[in-house]
Structures are given as structure tokens and as C-alpha cells.
Amino acid sequence: MKRKATIERITKETKIKLDLELTSLKESKITSGVPFFDHMLNLMAKHGRFSLNLKCQGDHEIDDHHSLEDIGISLGQALKKALGNKKGIARFGEAFVPMDESLSLAVIDLSGRSFFKYKGTELKGSINNYSEELTLEFLNSFAVNAEISLHVNLMYGNNRHHIHEAIFKSIALALYQAVSIDKFLGDNILSTKGLL
Questions:
Q1: Nearest to 73 by CA among 94, 91, 58
Q2: Cα–chain center distance at 122
Q3: What phi and psi values does residue 191 have, to the nearest 5 degrees?
């Protein structure tokens, strides 16, 4: 079963083409226009065991905000589409990931309901030219459009790069667990409602 999706999103602020394939070790090709964010998305794809081809043209002369928000929207829509009716998926995922002195916990429920919560060190600084708060904008847009519950708890950390890397890797591992096929379920959906 190929679980994949293509999303094209064109606005006055961004032009995005995104191809997502779940449970794939194909090399990802990511060009967001924001080098640090490309690095984080590459980490997320590798550790989440999915392939992501992304090209975004955005109004970076104004700010990187529109690009990251719209990439979050597009990736969320792609995940929702790739999961289809969600038959047989494990649904829940959780992962602690250390990155040297930093430790992050991510918990995911592919519930069909949108919620995002971040707890931990304030992400208000910058890494090179990357504004840390954009990570939260991206993750909120992703969770809302994927219709998932995503909780991230940065337990501790000092190095700003390590903090972000721990966050993205923990989300990747939790997502991999949640989208995995549980053979015990067969064609059943893990919900007393009968749908997700």
C-alpha cells in the first residue's frame, strides 16, 4: 500500500509543491528558502522514515513567516491525505529524544481533531537568520491541517540548535509510531467511534 500525497499551494505570498510518501527511506529533497529549516525538515523526514520533496518560493524579502506557515499547512494536508481512512494505523505515538544536553518529548494522536501545545524553553531568539518562533508557527499549522493532536515538551536544553533538533526528531519518531500499520488491527480503525 502506497501512502503518499501531493499538495500544490499557490497564494500571493508563497508557491509550494510538496510530495510526501510515508514509510519510505527515499532521499528527501527540500528547498524552503530557509536553510536552517531545510536542515530540520530533513532530520524530521529521515527519523520519521518518510520521503519529502518540497519546493517553496516565498516572499522572504518580507519575512520567512509566510513560507513556514504555508509549508506547515501543506505538510499537514499531505499527511491527512496520505493516511486516507486511517484503517489499521497505530494512531498514537510518543518519543523522548536527547540531543546532547537537550531533551524533548513529543506525543501524537492522529485523532481527526486539531490541537497543538508546546511547553518548555521560550523560542524567542534566533539561530543565524532563523527566528525560533517560526518553529511554533510551523508546528501549529502542521497539526491544525493534519487534524492531529501534537504535544511537545522540551524538558531542558541550552544550545539553541540542539533544542530544535531534539524537538524535530522527537516529533519524527512519534509520527512514525502513529502512522505505522498495526497488523493486529487489520482493516479496523482504532477508535470506539469507528472513524478518526
A1: 58
A2: 19
A3: -160, 140
pLDDT at position 166 over 90: yes
Are the C-beta atoms of residues 39 and 128 closer than 8 Å to each other?
A: no
| Residue 128: C-alpha distances to residues 49, 83, 92, 132 (Å) | 28, 36, 35, 10
- 195 φ/ψ angles, rounded to the nearest 5 degrees: -155, 160
| Grid coordinates of 75 | 505538510
Q: Scanning the structure block, which residue is given the C-alpha cell 509550494?
A: 16
- Domains in the chain and their CATH numbers? 4-179 (3.30.230.40)
| pLDDT single digits (tens) 95-148 | 999 999 999 999 999 999 999 999 999 999 999 999 999 999 999 999 999 999
- Please state the separation of Cα 4 from the chain's center in Å: 15
The tens digit of pLDDT for each residue in 145-156 reads: 999 999 999 999
CA–CA separation, 160 vs 15, rounded Å? 29
